[in-house]
Write a structure and sequence with these properties.
Layout: H1 16-30, E1 47-52, H2 58-69, E2 73-78, H3 90-98, E3 104-109, H4 114-121, E4 125-131, H5 137-151, E5 158-162, H6 169-180, E6 184-188, E7 204-206, H7 209-213, E8 218-221, H8 237-244, H9 248-251, E9 259-261, H10 274-277, H11 284-303
Parallel strand pairs: 1-2, 1-3, 3-4, 5-6, 5-8, 6-7, 8-9
Helix pairs in contact: 1-5, 1-11, 2-11, 3-4, 5-6, 5-11
Bound molecules: phosphoric acid mono(formamide)ester.
């Protein structure tokens, strides 16, 4: 198979075959990250702009590392230090950057649909690094790669995702990705953080963590996204931790060899007890490590993949 999309805007529009091809490509890049000299000339001469309108540690750094390891020129722009603070619009900012002829713009923005909006207006490629509460495709792909690494396959597994479902772009991308790859996805959170219609996406919905994680192969915990909430959706953080936080006792409900995942950043003691976050079942830093390989794969495929060798 050959798959060279112009943009990566979401998991919803990708097929199981395309997702598997991206994961296989990422797998082939993993080895570069453990070499003594972690650099290949694949994207030499390409320019990648990381345009982040929201805070990020993992996504922005790993897109930058991924681009650099492929020898692309990478430039980071954060809204807080750009002319966005002077009132420049998203479209004007992006069009001005495009005038400098980048090949790919990686965008994180607080508005759902911002990446689609730019993809329709720019000539260069756009990769979604998280748009509002809509999608975070590279996160779901690195999660899938991590599950495959630890469990051998994704089809037939039960994956429980627990937390602030309403405000999570990670959960939406994961529901699409894991369902397409054949996993059973269970979702759980307080009623105020569960949007209606989730069952139509093919997942099972629970109002308590215990039922959701019982006999699960993977437990993925999500952070409460206070920056996206209006009025408080929970009586108190302490109460949330008690009823929806994952501790060692609750984790015994999942399969003995279940893995514990978190996209980060973790609110320790809220959704995840430190003993679990640092415990033997956690694969959280494997997720981060796989994030570099997945982003290398996305940059490579969007830039042309095998066709690059013919240029
Ligand atoms: N998981 C994730 O998107 O982390 P950052 O916000 O640090 O990029």
């Amino acid at each position: 198979m050959n798959f060279n999309p112009k943009h990566i805007l979401g998991i919803q529009e990708l097929s199981a075959e395309e997702l598997t091809f991206i994961l296989d490509t990422a797998e082939s890049f993993k080895e570069i990250n453990t070499r003594k000299i972690k650099k290949v000339p694949t994207l030499r001469g390409k320019t990648i702009v990381n345009l982040f309108f929201e805070a990020s540690t993992r996504t922005r750094t790993s897109f930058e590392v991924a681009g650099k390891r492929l020898s692309a020129d990478t430039i980071n722009i954060s809204a807080s230090s750009s002319s966005v603070v002077k009132g420049e619009t998203l479209q004007d900012t992006a069009q001005n950057i495009e005038a400098m002829h980048p090949d790919i713009i990686v965008v994180r923005h607080g508005a759902s649909g911002a990446c689609h909006y730019l993809a329709e207006r720019l000539n260069c490629s756009v990769i979604n690094a998280g748009d509002g509460t809509h999608e975070h495709p590279s996160q779901a792909l690195l999660d899938a790669l991590t599950i495959r690494q630890h469990k051998g396959q994704i089809a037939g597994l039960t994956v429980a995702i627990v937390g602030d479902i309403t405000h999570s772009r990670v959960v939406r991308s994961n529901i699409y990705c894991l369902s397409k790859l054949g996993a059973k996805v269970r979702i759980a959170g307080p009623g105020t953080m569960l949007p209606p219609g989730l069952d139509r996406l093919g997942c099972e919905v629970y109002r308590n963590i215990e039922d959701a994680i019982r006999d699960a192969d993977c437990v993925m915990m999500l952070r409460i996204q206070r920056e996206r909430q209006g009025a408080s959706l929970i009586p108190s953080v302490r109460e949330y931790a008690r009823y929806f936080g994952l501790n060692e006792k609750k984790l015994t409900l999942a399969k003995k060899d279940a893995i514990v995942m978190h996209p980060g950043p973790i609110n320790r003691g809220v959704e995840l007890a430190s003993s679990v976050a640092d415990g033997p079942q956690n694969v959280i830093l494997d997720q981060v490590e796989n994030g570099v390989a997945v982003r290398m794969a996305l940059l490579y495929l969007v830039a042309g993949g095998e066709k690059l060798q013919q240029d």
